[in-house]
């Protein structure tokens, strides 16, 4: 099963043709699209997308780059929204949450506060977590070891082999997407080629992180088959086997994808 484990389908970049974007992905063989929220303001939007499209599953969380516009009461909103969603077969878990140590000017203490509180919610409900780990792998791992959520995905992974092993050991798959399609992205390509196959899932992060053939353009889930082909080539394996393996991994860490 071909799964886009990370797509911001609710983003304004898709306002003009959102339904067509999903149709193109499905026509290309994409069986599931996971849409994580970025703040309390779009919890209803991502849930509505899953109700409109059979392909879509959703996650609820407050993105580290959006905590500057969040308030502590949003954590209560999240907890209530999660409690209301746990019986929904389209609900995939908590996300997108984590830490960003790349973008300058972000309040790291505030990010950590929101991350920790959202991990508490994930553990309380026994839910997987979709993680943002940009330049923050060790700091995120520290909190995962502390709270021990059931697992999930380290989205857009670009850490070391040792960090990859640490995430995998805690039950997390590693998300690879458009970044690995650039020939000069040597570190990511080495990781994609060498980490254990049972630790890899595929993603687009659409509309962001466009693949090499759409550089500076809008990314979308329909690009996933070509991204999967690049991954298969890096691994020296058949595309069908790459899709089957990464799809099985996605279902393992996000069981809602099987429903």
Keywords:
259 residues; alpha/beta; TIM Barrel; eight-stranded parallel sheet; 9 helices; 8 strands; globular
The end-to-end distance, rounded to whole angstroms, is: 13 Å
How many DSSP E strands? 8
Q: Give the averaged pLDDT, no decimals.
A: 98
**Level-1 CATH class name:** Alpha Beta
Percentage of residues in strands: 15-25%
H/I helix tally: 9
CATH evolutionary superfamily: Metal-dependent hydrolases
Brief summary of the model shown:
With 259 residues, the protein is α/β, with parallel strands linked by helices. Helix content is 41%, strand content 17%.
Structure report:
By secondary structure, the chain is an alpha/beta fold. The protein has a single domain, classed as Metal-dependent hydrolases (TIM Barrel, Alpha-Beta Barrel), CATH 3.20.20. 41% of the residues lie in helices and 17% in strands. It contains 9 helices and 8 strands. Strands 1-2-3-4-5-6-7-8 form an 8-stranded parallel sheet. α3 packs parallel to α4 (108-125) and α8 packs across α9 (239-253). The longest helix has 18 residues, at 108-125.
């Amino acid at each position: 099963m071909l799964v886009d484990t990370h797509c911001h389908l609710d983003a304004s970049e898709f306002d003009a043709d959102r339904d067509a974007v999903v149709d193109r992905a499905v026509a290309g063989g994409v069986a599931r699209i996971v849409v994580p929220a970025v703040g309390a303001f779009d919890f209803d939007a991502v849930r509505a997308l899953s109700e409109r499209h059979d392909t879509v599953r959703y996650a609820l969380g407050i993105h580290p780059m959006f905590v500057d516009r969040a308030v502590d009461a949003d954590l209560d909103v999240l907890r209530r929204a999660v409690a209301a969603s746990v019986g929904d077969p389209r609900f995939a878990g908590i996300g997108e949450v984590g830490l960003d140590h790349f973008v300058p000017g972000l309040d790291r203490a505030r990010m950590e506060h929101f991350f920790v509180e959202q991990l508490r919610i994930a553990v309380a409900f026994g839910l997987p977590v979709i993680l943002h780990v940009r330049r923050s792998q060790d700091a995120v791992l520290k909190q995962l070891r502390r709270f021990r959520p059931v697992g999930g995905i380290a989205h857009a992974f670009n850490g070391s082999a040792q960090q990859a092993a640490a995430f995998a050991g805690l039950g997390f798959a590693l998300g690879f997407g458009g970044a690995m399609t650039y020939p000069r992205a040597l570190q990511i390509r080495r990781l994609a080629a060498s980490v254990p196959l049972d630790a890899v899932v595929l993603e687009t992060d659409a509309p962001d992180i466009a693949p090499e053939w759409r550089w500076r353009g809008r990314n979308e889930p329909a690009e996933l088959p070509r991204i999967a082909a690049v991954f298969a080539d890096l691994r020296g394996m058949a595309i069908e086997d790459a899709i089957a393996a990464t799809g099985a991994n996605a279902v393992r860490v996000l069981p809602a994808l099987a429903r």
